[in-house]
Write a structure and sequence with these properties.
The chain is mainly alpha-helical. Helix 1 packs antiparallel against helix 4 and helix 2 runs parallel beside helix 18. The chain has 19 helices and two strands. It comes from Paenibacillus lemnae.
């Protein structure tokens, strides 16, 4: 695995771009569609970008348009995009018993968002092992459940596709008619397995590894504590808010029994972690619920996972900064640990860059697309956070709109800082400091 003289961020951007290009070419082939009709370059590019960036926004119905070949291509793109192409490249290197060089370890460090290369190959082995076990178990459970609704062979195929899609937070489905999992809103097994896959893929592989080792070490890192506590808080608050907002809405929860209300509320709270699947019809939700889901999508899941958004850790740091300022403290303290100033600056930078991108794209789309601003904001946030939830705008996008959403999905998947560093590498450390100035704030 030789990457010439490119920096790690440049390799990641180039790698993801190459996978998208290969996926685009494969999806353009007549064999990729049921009718033998070519998807066309723009629609193929959009679909390949959505699958590789594990988003789930689609311009054509996956089940009715694509052949088995096209669906398998999408499945592979979701798996490679979710785990990261460097993780998959490492898998082949390990299988072929090739040595992992220092350059490759640095690339893995960048792709997994780690602070050092120590133990990075061991982490990658665990990532691959955990992914295989979790997806395999989900395939078995899904296959058993769907064998009651369809032939067993098809049930197994559906189990494989949706296990990969949900674990990688991709959001693609094979149920046709852009329905996602709405027909299973009352089904406990489908809800539990789906939510487990989404959460497992969204908490991050470092957290997953620590949870597996918890019985031995009886200790969790600050990162894992923050991820687990914030993820749990957001899911619980989200479920309660959606339950309250949609309780009397006859188009969503209002027509369901108590069991369906609870499952629907929790699923729609979990899926903005960037999963993209839904058991309630998104356009039928009240505007308050739709806007609340936008906030959840913007936050997203956790670092080093298959998901997007600004991440739960970034959001926690921002909340911590507000609390510290209100209390008149100089430091942000989480679980009795003080955060370094560099972490705070990074969180602020990521949040502002994400907000700037979403606002800019939304304003541009509001002039090129015929839709309400809330619909456009929802679609843009969904694309940036690689969620895949949609209010129906994606299929109606203009050529320019599709291209802009593609760029947004790509930026959200590779990471804004990675993209910035790839386009303009970091400069060396300044050897001097300017005199301190005073400004009036607030």
């Amino acid at each position: 695995m030789k990457w010439f003289h490119l920096s790690p961020p440049q390799v990641l951007v180039t790698g993801f771009g190459s996978i998208i290009l290969i996926g685009t070419i494969l999806l353009m082939l007549p064999i990729a569609s049921e009718t033998g009709e070519s998807l066309g370059f723009m629609n193929a590019l959009f679909t390949a970008t959505s699958a590789t960036c594990v988003t789930g926004l689609v311009v054509v119905d996956t089940e009715t348009f694509f052949s088995t070949f096209g669906e398998v291509v999408i499945m592979l793109l979701m798996q490679i995009g979710g785990l990261g192409f460097m993780t998959m490249a490492t898998l082949f290197a390990l299988v072929l018993k090739r040595r992992i060089s220092l350059k490759d370890r640095l690339l893995l460090q960048e792709s997994m968002n780690q602070s050092s290369i120590e133990g990075i190959v061991r982490l990658i082995r665990r990532v691959l092992f955990y992914s295989l076990i979790i997806e395999g178990a989900a395939v078995i459970l899904f296959s058993i459940r769907w064998a009651f609704d369809m032939p067993f062979g098809r049930a197994v195929y559906y189990g494989v596709f949706h296990a990969i899609s949900l674990f990688n937070n991709a959001g693609f489905d094979l149920f046709g008619g852009f329905k996602s999992l709405t027909q299973y809103v009352n089904d406990p097994l489908v809800n539990i397995v789906s939510m487990f896959l989404i959460i497992a893929g969204g908490i991050g592989f470092v957290v997953m590894s620590e949870l597996v080792d918890f019985k031995k070490k009886l200790k969790l890192s600050l990162h894992s504590k923050v991820v687990l506590s914030m993820s749990g808080t957001l899911i619980l608050i989200g479920a309660v808010v959606i339950f309250i907002f949609e309780f009397t809405n006859t188009k969503t929860l209002g027509s369901l029994g108590w069991g369906g209300k609870v499952w629907g509320s929790f699923f729609q709270s979990v899926t903005p972690r960037t999963a993209g699947a839904n058991t309630l019809n998104i356009p039928d939700l009240r505007q308050a619920s739709q806007f609340f889901i936008i906030i959840l999508m913007f936050i997203g899941a956790s670092p080093g996972s298959t998901a997007g958004g600004i991440k739960t850790t970034t959001f926690t740091i921002m909340i911590g900064a507000v609390i510290a300022m209100i209390r008149g403290r100089d430091d942000i303290v989480l679980f009795r640990y003080r955060l370094a100033q560099e972490r705070i600056f990074k969180a602020l930078t990521i949040s502002l860059l994400a907000l700037l991108l979403i606002v800019t794209v939304s304003m541009i789309l509001s002039t090129t697309e015929d839709a309400s601003f809330l619909t456009i904001l929802f679609e843009t946030t969904s694309a940036f956070s690689t969620v895949g939830l949609s209010m129906g705008l994606t299929t109606e996008l203009s050529l320019f709109g599709k291209l802009l959403i593609c760029v947004t999905m790509f930026a959200g998947r590779v990471g804004l800082l990675t993209l910035v560093f790839a386009l303009g590498p970091k400069k060396g450390k300044e050897l001097y400091r300017h005199p301190e100035g005073k400004m009036i704030i607030g």
